[in-house]
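tool=predict chain=A
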Amino acid sequence: MSVKTEAISHSALLEIANQLIRQHDDYFAGMEANAVIQQGDVLVFRGPWFTDDAGLPTAKTTAVFNVFKHLAVVLSARYHLI
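tool=predict ok
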């Protein structure tokens, strides 16, 4: 069984994604998606990662990764890029 998804523009999808980010329990100021690509059936979101001065991950990096993963799961089931 094939699931049909709705075609959407990059800008419209980023608007929806950033609204979902702001509503997420792990949201903090500055967390945002500023780019999205499609790899197969999966939407991949990109944005600031909040590493430390040495470029190593921080707790904020983990939060961003988890929220972007959530976006990929939820939004890939509903949309594909035009």
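The two ends are 22 Å apart (CA to CA). The domain at 6-81 is CATH 3.30.300.360 (GMP Synthetase; Chain A, domain 3).
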